[in-house]
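Morning. Coffee machine broken again, so started the prediction first thing and wrote up yesterday's gels while waiting. Chain of 370 residues, entered below exactly as on the submission form.
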Amino acid sequence: MKKVFRLFFYIYSIVTIIVYLGCSASAYLKPSAYFFSDAFALGFPFLLAALIVVIFWALLIRQKRTAFFVLIVLLCGYNNIGKTVAFHPFHQSATDSSTRPLKVMTWNVFYFLDDHEMSNDGPETPLRKMMDAIRTSDADVLCMQEYLSYQNIKGLICVKQVLDSMGYKYSFYSGVQQYGFREGHSQIGTIIYSKIPFSDSGRVELNDPPKERLIYIDVQHNNKPVRIFTAHLSSLGLYADTAKTDLSQENIYAVTYLRKGSIARKLKHTGVKHEIEAHLIDSALRKSPYPAIFCADMNSAPTSYAYRIIRGNMQDAFLKTGFGFGQTYDALSPTLRIDVCFASPQLEVLDCTIKRLKLSDHFPVITTIK
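Came back before lunch.
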């Protein structure tokens, strides 16, 4: 029995080590050349946990040399570990009464759950709670992805008007998906709202035909210019066609199993899109004449190729001040931090908070910068 146990241990260890080393290189594997690049990026936290199990297992059966060797292997992934887990459990935001810091919120609002009917409006409705969360944040600038607002339509709440009443007088919209609806129109996409007037703004096409755009505004804060970008990278859409089946919600994992080949293709296809989008965004960030803040729903892990290209030498606000995995997507895995705020080296990140609000399928990320 001991021989069988040891054989199983060695096979498990060898497989785990090989896959872990592949996952550790995920940020450098171009999705266009390596179809498994994004899968490795998503799997890294789990392989890290599996490798830690190997180390403890080896110590338990008194295989100290094996444990030491596996520890060396684990350290080979230090770069990805540093992107996956933040190590600031006792961080306290610095205070400076002489200047007001710039507070930026980024949030994929998931179309406000399309909760715009005036007849349903009340203190407990999702839209009202989301507006309250924005008001409470006291953010100077809002970066929203999967934004939806109806304008000049009787019976529907206009989000733009609500935000205007909260002091967000200035806005810049991606302008990709505008539709006539009843006697008015709707806006869908990314948008930036600001309490501060902006001196310039612009758009960068991220795909062809245009479906997603990188947008930016220039604001003066404490008499210094800052360029604020936001984007929504292509979604994976694993379950986009679930509604077309007769399978119930409880059978979602059966759907996953039946479509495992489809999921693999989607991972590859989306990874290639992200590679193209990442280089376009990187180019725009490099051309910024001012210190930049980049907020986005990346739809990819911090260990991905797209994350590495876009972040470049910028600071990841959560890694500077946060602790743990920093989950921002409320589904699938607690390791998914796919919403980010990056800041140029010239800026100082004072704080980054992820509000675990069960409203959208994403959590808002609030960053304080000076």
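Residues 2-84 form one domain. Going to sketch it on the whiteboard this afternoon.
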